[in-house]
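General statements about sequence and structure are easier to judge against a single worked case. No coordinates are needed to read the tokens, only the vocabulary itself. The sequence in question and its structure tokens are set out directly beneath this paragraph.
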Amino acid sequence: RWNTFASGVIKKNSKRFIGYACIQPMAGKAALDEIDHAVNDLGMKGLHIWTVNNGKYLDDRAMWPFYEKAAKYKLPIDVHVTIEPAGLDAMASSYGLSYVLAREFDMAIATMRLCLGGVLEDFPDLVFIMNHFGGGVSSVADRMTAYMEFLGTGWESFYTGKPLISKPWTTYWDKLYFNTAGREMGISSLKCALTNVKPEKLVFGTDWPFNYDYRPEKVRAYAEEIKKLDILPPGAADKILGGNAARILGIKTK
């Protein structure tokens, strides 16, 4: 129902919007048929899923038919945090710790599963956009490299069985895109992400409830802050603010 509704809005405003179809990957043939319908009949240009889908993580082999279909159409996959991620009971409190941390840990775990779990090994051309700066996962990228080097060639393997990737894990990390949602005026988060994420892999994004629909001046100010970042090479701000997304979607820009 959402995909059909969104398609109608897009058709009325084709110069303003492009749609991603919401898909439940674990719905079997119905999910794969909906992708066909979304692309061929509704004109959708990408797919939107959760970090965990019916209990299946992104590197679960049950996800492979979904990836095969996405790869067939060359559809980018937008990955959003699970609303109530499981296994993070330590976040339960009388205050909103889960809103701030549990969902970000959930996204960080999903990001690492994509890099280490063989997804991009088997589907090297798939494009993933990880929301919320990947949960801030760039802060542990160096730690992952250290442990891969230590355990991969040391006294025990990093993998308990056969390794699922054939190249350094950062090869797959460099394939991922990360959006700037989830931080509102998060210029500090953007600076942190840039320590381990290339500018051409960042895409501008807003988020509910911080989507500025009632405060458009905030989103304008955030864009201006990005333009002023002196740590960005020439032209990088324009890529983050639209050029990278245009490249992902095959949109011609002036």
